[in-house]
Amino acid sequence: MQPPRTTKYLLRFDDLCPTMNWAVWSEIEAALMEHHLKPILAVVPDNQDPVLKVAPAVENFWERVRQWQARGWTIGLHGSQHKYTAEHAGILTLKKKTEFAGVSAGEQEEKLRRGVEIFERQGIKTRVWIAPNNSFDGTTVSLLPGFGIHIICDGYFRFPYVSPVTPSLSPSDGHRARERGWMTWVPQQLFCFRPAPPGIWTVCYHHNNWSAESVSKFREDLDCYGAEISSLDEVVQEWAGHSCRWSAFLCTSPRLSPLLIRCELKLWEWWRSGLIQAPVPMKADSNCRAG
After folding, report:
1. Contact assessment for residue 41 and residue 130, using Cβ atoms and an 8 Å cutoff
2. 245-265, pLDDT tens digit by residue?
3. Parallel, antiparallel, or unpaired for β 288-290 and 242-244?
4. Are 101 and 133 in contact (CB under 8 A)?
5. Which of 14, 38, 105, 185 has the fewest CB atoms within 10 Å, i.e. is most exposed?
6. DSSP letters for 234-284
7. Among residues 125, 186, 131, which one has the least CA distance to residue 160?
8. What is the H or E stretch that residue 76 is in?
């Protein structure tokens, strides 16, 4: 049975670390709690990126992360040190600044191990991967299940899908193989709220440089779109076991997918304003099926 084709939004905040902009974050956190929302928080385990050092480090950072986790907010592993050490685009982006893509399997495994160990020492559980600069490769994907990570939040496509980490696996390989060798891909296409056609639309924010006006606009957007904002747990449960060849193709087509998503959003905007007739659903969407 297919999940209902409705428009749902996810909220994601990147670059959470001890030296982020805490004055702005306090406003964001209050708004999230007022609206009873459960965002995705991309936490850097051991930040070494000077760009993210915008305020004095708070001493109780991990205590705060545990509080977020206790509220049911999703904690994602945002790399290891958020330090770009190579020039390689990876599979989802054209940007050649990376912490993981193109790096040897042994080095990637060590980075993942260090990050997960920090989380574990602090009592943080994660099953979600969020790559710094959206940059990682097939080696990264193959390593993630070994660290208990089976969800990737990234890529320009509309409908989440489940795919094998190795092509030899299939749904008939059973529950154990699915747990060890399958990955759920959840898209991330937006950086602000806007009307969108049916699909799962993750709005990603980087709050370090927000102004008072940015906070005010964020509150307005929550008031406007709050009824359509979901949680990652709800989305993953709803789309469990669904494959989608079209989403998988777009996910790894970084030249085509952003352009196509922008076109779909613009057509939807024109339709809502009455400039064109209702858009015809893309035939490729029929490639989404139960896995």
Report:
1. no
2. 999 999 999 999 999 999 999
3. antiparallel
4. no
5. 105
6. HHHHHTTTEEEHHHHHHHT-TTTHHHHHHHHHHHHHHHHTTSSPPPPPPGG
7. 186
8. strand 74-77
Q: How far is CA 89 from the centre of its chain?
A: 18
> Which tokens sit at 238?
């709803």
Phi/psi for 147 (5° steps) reads -110, 15
Q: State how far the Cα of 69 lies from the Cα of 280, in Å rounded to an integer.
A: 41
Q: Which helix or strand (DSSP H or E) is residue 139 part of?
A: helix 138-143
Classify burial at 135, counting beta carbons within 10 Å of its beta carbon; exposed 0-12, middle 13-18, buried 19 or more.
buried
C-alpha dihedral sign at 231, 236, 74, 84: negative
Which are the contacts of 72, defined by CB distance < 8 A and separation ≥ 6? 38, 231, 233
Q: What is the pLDDT of residues 165-191, one digit of tens each?
A: 865 444 444 444 444 578 999 999 999
CB count within 10 Å of CB 28 equals 21
Residue listed under structure tokens 């959840």:
186
- Domains present along the chain, CATH in parentheses: 7-290 (3.20.20.370)
| Residues in contact with 201: Cβ distance below 8 Å, sequence separation at least 6, in sequence order | 7, 8, 9, 10, 158, 187, 189, 190
Residue type, 31: A
The angle subtended at Cα 131 by Cα 130 and Cα 134, nearest 5°, is 110
Q: In the structure encoding, which two tokens stand for residue 190, read together?
A: 């937006």
Strands 40-43 and 288-290 turn out to be unpaired
| DSSP for 205-222, written as a single string | E-GGG--HHHHHHHHHHH
Distance, in Å, from the CA atom of 200 to the CA atom of 197, rounded to the nearest integer, reads 9
For the segment 185-213, what is each residue's pLDDT rounded down to a tens digit? 999 999 999 999 999 999 999 999 999 99
Inform me whether the pLDDT recorded for 6 exceeds 60. yes
CB 182, CB 165: distance < 8 Å: yes
CB 239 within 8 A of CB 3: yes
Q: Which two tokens stand for residue 248?
A: 């998988």
